[in-house]
Amino acid sequence: MGTVAKRLAGLARHRRVEVAHEGWAGGRIRPLDIRSGDTVEIIAGKDKGKRGVVERVETERQRIVVRGANLMKRHTKANTQGNVQGGIVDFNGPIAYSKVQLVCNRCEKRTRITRQVTEEGVNVIVCKKCGERYERVAG
Ligand SMILES: [Zn+2]
Prior knowledge:
It is built from one helix and ten strands, in the order H-E-E-E-E-E-E-E-E-E-E. The longest helix has 24 residues. About 7% of the residues have low confidence.
C-alpha cells in the first residue's frame, strides 16, 4: 500500500470513530432495563458468566455496579487528622450496561424483557424467554 493510500485509510478510520463517538455522546440517554436489586449475568469481560445482584445503576453513564463483580482495589493513604486508615480497599467497579443481561427470576435464564401495564394498572415486566409476567422485586 502506498503512503497516500495508507493515510487515506487512516483518515477514514478516524472519521468512523468520531461519528460513533458523536452518536454515543450526543444521543439521548435511554433508561436502562436493569434496576438495583435485579440479578444479572455478565456476558463479556473478565467476569463473563458470573451472576450477581445489582447494587447501583448509573443511567447517565449507562453503567451498573454488580455486587461481587469487577472487583477493583483502591489504595488509600492514611490520614491521621481525618483518622482514616491507609490500605487497600476492595470495591466493585461499574460495568457497561451492554456487558450484562438481566436474569429472569422465574426461569432463571438470562433474558431480555418488555414492559407492560396490566388491566389493573400494575407495571410488570415480561420475560422474553418464558413469557412470564411479574412485578419487579426492587426499584
Ligand atoms: Zn423467564
